[in-house]
């Protein structure tokens, strides 16, 4: 059985859906951050699948840039989480709503 680009698009939709469920249902900030990264990787997979369908390499280059930006986003996110843990001694998402006042 040969894998077609449509199979990768379906896989991308499934992985993106799992990421959305993780963001909406969890309160742990680490799980939310990992779910956002999962959604970003699903989008990368879809871009690569569409790029292969059109026999164009620009999608692959775009994905490399997105991966580089995602690495920077993760480092900033983890720095914020560590700073929040040092300040409040917990990492629930509800802690961020207490910062408004």
Verbal overview:
- The model has no long low-confidence stretch (mean pLDDT 88).
- The radius of gyration is 17 Å and the shape is elongated.
- It is an all-alpha fold.
- The protein starts with a helix and ends with a helix.
- Helices cover 80% and strands 0% of the residues.
- The chain has one domain: Helix Hairpins.
- The chain contains 4 helices and no strands.
- 6% of the residues are buried.
- Helix 1 (5-25) packs antiparallel against helix 2 (29-53).
- The chain has helices at residues 5-25, 29-53, 58-88, 94-97.
CATH class: Mainly Alpha
What fold name goes in the CATH topology slot? Helix Hairpins
* Largest sheet geometry: none
Strand segment count:
0
State the order of secondary-structure elements, H for helix, E for strand: HHHH
Kindly estimate the percentage of residues that lie in beta strands according to DSSP: under 5%
CATH architecture: Orthogonal Bundle
Radius of gyration over C-alpha positions, nearest whole angstrom = 17 Å
Question: Mean of residue pLDDT?
Answer: 88
Number of domains: 1
Distance between the termini: 59 Å
Shape: elongated
Helix content: over 70%
Secondary structure category: mainly alpha
